[in-house]
């Protein structure tokens, strides 16, 4: 069941998630390029080629990632719901966090390829071939635990906290739906950025040296970052990523809501009208 009380199937939510992810990444890809460059201390070039290198693999990876997130969130709901079939605020966040951790099985390997592609400016196929040929198939799991921690927290904010805060603001303070959503989205976006950025910084470092002769473990990366910059070292690229996550909070939730409304309207029209005329009216 969606936030608006309408019921959707697993596949419907999966499709909505995939389309929402493509919209989000097309809008925010430049912030990903800047964030990765800052985290790896690489120069930034304000050119379309630099900003959108890796867009195809990122879009191709984000679509299944958000599809898995939305679909898994739907599939897990019955296991976290109460006897009445609804989710409490805490369980809504827990369900979303679990869905995020599941999605890291897709996001971790995809981002490994994207980071290497950005580092060496190689093709998607060439990057994947280099990784597997030099390090074996197991290399695709590099940084997976960090991706799971990051994605679990992130989706917890997107599909859990944002909705919970928005509802509470409406009920407790009488804010309008738009005002409550604005506050809830900003709070969730900033919260997600603060909580997940250290995971993302370490993951980028771990995956960034995937083809280096000396492989750095997660504890070694942690100590290296702390030694070089203390707590601030874990927040390199924070502004770029914070902007992206906050924007994504609105893009994903608005896209989800609009597509759910369109799907409800389509279903309603299909039930109440017949023939080709109804299809033309919906389109």
From TrEMBL:
Subcellular location as annotated: Mitochondrion membrane
Spans of repeat Solcar: 179-262
One Pfam family cited in the UniProt record for this chain: Mito_carr
SUPFAM superfamilies hit by this protein: Mitochondrial carrier
Native source organism of the sequence: Chloropicon roscoffensis
Protein's name in the database: Mitochondrial substrate carrier protein
One cellular-component annotation, GO: mitochondrial membrane
Membrane topology value: Multi-pass membrane protein
Keyword Repeat: yes
């Amino acid at each position: 069941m969606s936030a608006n009380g309408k019921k959707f199937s697993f596949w419907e939510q999966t499709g909505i998630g995939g389309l929402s992810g493509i919209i989000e990444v097309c809008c925010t890809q430049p912030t990903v390029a800047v964030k990765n460059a800052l985290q790896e201390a690489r120069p930034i070039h304000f050119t379309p080629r630099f900003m959108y290198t890796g867009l195809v693999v990122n879009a191709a990876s984000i679509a299944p990632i958000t599809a898995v997130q939305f679909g898994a969130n739907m599939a897990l709901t019955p296991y976290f719901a109460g006897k009445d079939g609804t989710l409490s605020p805490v369980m809504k966040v827990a369900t979303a966090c679990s869905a995020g951790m599941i999605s890291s099985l897709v996001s971790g390997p995809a981002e490994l390829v994207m980071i290497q592609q950005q580092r060496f400016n190689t093709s998607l196929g060439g990057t994947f071939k280099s990784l597997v040929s030099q390090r074996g198939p197991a290399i695709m799991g590099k940084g997976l635990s960090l991706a799971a921690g990051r994605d679990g927290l992130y989706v917890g904010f997107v599909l859990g906290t944002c909705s919970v805060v928005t509802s509470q603001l409406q009920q407790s303070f009488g804010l309008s739906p738009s005002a409550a959503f604005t506050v809830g989205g900003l709070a969730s976006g900033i919260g997600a950025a603060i909580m997940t950025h250290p995971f993302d910084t370490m993951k980028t470092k771990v995956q960034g040296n995937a083809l280096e002769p000396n492989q750095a473990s997660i504890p070694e990366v942690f100590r290296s970052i702390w030694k070089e910059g203390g707590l601030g070292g874990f927040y390199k690229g924070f502004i770029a990523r914070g902007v992206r996550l906050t924007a994504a909070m609105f893009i994903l939730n608005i896209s989800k809501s609009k597509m759910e409304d369109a799907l409800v309207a389509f279903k309603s029209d299909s039930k109440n009208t017949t023939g080709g005329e109804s299809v033309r009216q919906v389109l």
